[in-house]
Amino acid sequence: MTPLSLDRISQDRGVGRRRHRVLHDVSLTIAPGEFVLLEGPSGAGKSTLLGVAAGMLTPAEGSVTLVGMELGRLSPAARRRQRARTLGFVFQRSNLVSGLTALDNVRLMAEIAGVPSPEAKRRARDLLERVGLGSLGSRLPHELSGGEEQRLAIARALVHRPALVLADEPTSSLDGQIGRTVAELLATLAREHDTAVLVSTYDPRLAPYAQRRIAILDGRLTAPSAIAHPSPTESKE
Amino acid sequence: MTPNGLTLPRLLAIALRSRRRRDWLAVTGIATCTVLVLVIVSAFRSVTRAMVAYVDQPGADVWVSLPGTDNLIRGSASGLLSVDLADSLRVLPGVANADPVLKGFMTVTTTHAPSRRASLLSILYRSPDGLGGPPALVAGRTPVGRREAAIDRAAAHRLGVELGDTVAVANRNIEIVGITRGTNLLATQFIFADLAASAVSSDTRDKASFIVLRLERGAETEAVVAAISARFPDLIAHSRSQFLANNKSEIAAGFVPLLTLMGGLGVAAAAVLVSLLVNGATAERHEDIVVLFALGAELSDVLRGLLRGTLRQAGLGCGLGVLLALGLGVWLDRWFPEIPLTLTLLDTVGVVAIFAAASVFGAAIPMLGLQSVDPMEAFRG
User: Fold this and answer.
1) Which H, E and C letters describe B17-66, residue by residue?
2) Quick one: how far is CA B304 from the chain centroid?
3) Cβ of B381 and A168 within 8 Å?
4) Per-residue pLDDT for B237 more than 90?
5) What Å distances lie between residue B166 and B89, B178, B215, CA to CA?
6) Of A204, B282, B292, B305, whose Cβ has the fewest other Cβ atoms within 10 Å?
7) How do beta strands B166-169 and B172-180 pair?
8) What is the C-alpha separation between A218 and A233, in angstroms, rounded?
9) By the CB < 8 Å criterion, does B17 face chain A?
10) What is the dihedral of CA A204, A210, A212, A214, to 10 degrees?
11) Which residues have CB under 8 Å from A189's CB, separation 6+?
């Protein structure tokens, strides 16, 4: 089943005279297991597009279909449940729950998605091993390095075996080799789990893993060649 | 609702738990408020219990007084009874014995320097075994003659006197020969002496506030009360239960408004404290809450997690408060018996339940604000 289909999405921001359009007639389909880069400069509409795809924002026009369910037809609670079951997230900052250990952060996502408790714990342990954090399961997020946090976030994003992972600039806060390692881990694990990935980024280190690259500029999808990439120094190489 | 019952709420409760210092601040605050309310309630219970101990003692089945005097605390200015009335009442059918009791207030002064004084509720009765004497002695004996008295343990502590010491009452020296317990009314305490002591004043000589009757086995209290009303229309006869109720009501009239106000303020303080702390905790955990909503957690699950934490704090706070109140009661009884504390299980459970409800109410206000948390914040780095 197609993980994500956006059909002629338009989205506004602000109210009254300050209201302006941030997404214009965006259509996009992500195939199962596909790794897609959504490139664009800051303010181009990448995060808004991810928010619409996740059902956190209701589009002004158009429809969003997430794993066979058209979100516009669902109640807010049902949208939230659909999001929990079918989507994984890797945010720009890892956004781990600060009061939970590494293991419980991963386990929590599985529990939210409705995975039975013993299975959630087993999967969380396996994935921590897989991302190289098997021995750090009892650590709190603030006791981990930036790279470890993002690896943990990747484990959290995949533990409930979602159809699609939405990753919002997952490597932008990581330097050089660490950023490449995290990018590779995300691509590898997504492939192993047959999970599609939509990554919003401005980081060229992710380009080698992409099966498809699309770009967004001023709220409109465009060809990647239409946007200027930052220099290697700008991308924290 | 997730199908996996218990684990998600537990994880959320841990995730949303306040930082340790804030957690302990909440627990300590609730404990302090709990102690405050328990002390007020138990002081009231102690006073009531002291009155019950005296009025409800064996043998005091009917209390006879002039109209307008229906309790021990306050009486009317309608005068006193003659002690000879006891003889007239003693011969009524169903009455086994009748003894006079003269109630009043005595200013007692110690004879050693520096002098201390206390105004005590005096009960003059026909010692050593007349009706209306001390309900329980913890040391010494009942007083005999006009130069002896038994006083409450807390009064002895207030005055700094022991058995065998002498105190002054209306320029007469009286020896303390007995110490009573459970006769502390907080604002004052009981002192018991022989009715012969009333002879020092012409106003009270051979006078009584009450005639206390002991009924024969099998006699109907209501029948005796009715017979007294018929035979002595100028007198009022109170059954033991009625007299007890009158005294409790009199105590409650003085205590309950203040008790309610202080208790209410204590509970309100706890609710405000919990509200502030939950508000702080939700602000402190705002980023975590944003992430939870972004991941798809239900609002109800997050609220349950927060509520669980609040109830945990309330439970710990109340538990600590109960322990502190119990410890305080023991300490006061040993070192400062003027303040009596009697904790009953029912009162304790009631206070804990009220605090739990107040905590939930206090937590509800900041929790309602979670409805406006925008999960999109997770994308805004």
Assistant:
1) CCCHHHHHHHHHHHHHHHHHHHHHHHHHHHHHHHHHHHHCCCCCCEEEEC
2) 37
3) yes
4) yes
5) 37, 12, 37
6) A204
7) antiparallel
8) 24
9) yes
10) -30
11) A130, A131, A154, A158, A195
pLDDT digits (tens, 9 = 90+) for B49-75: 898 999 998 899 999 999 888 888 876
Residue A51 structure tokens: 């928010």
Q: Tell me the shortest Cα–Cα distance from A231 to chain B, in angstroms.
A: 22
User: Cβ neighbours of residue A231 under 8 Å, at least 6 residues apart?
Assistant: none
Find out whether the peptide bond into A116 is cis, omega within 30 degrees of 0.
no
Strands, E, within chain B: which ranges?
A: 62-65, 81-82, 95-110, 117-125, 137-140, 148-152, 166-169, 172-180, 190-194, 207-208, 210-215, 236-239
pLDDT score at A72: 93
In sequence order, what are the beta bridge partners of B82? B207
Of residues B114 and B54, more confidently modeled? B54
User: In the structure encoding, which two tokens stand for residue A17, read together?
Assistant: 């005279």
Test the B interface: residue of A13, A22, A56 with most B CBs within 10 Å: A56
Q: What distance in Å separates the CA atoms of residue A7 and residue A165, rounded to the nearest whole number?
A: 19
Q: Is the pLDDT reported for residue A235 higher than 60?
A: no
Structure tokens at B114: 């520096």
In the block, tokens 């000879």 appear at: B84
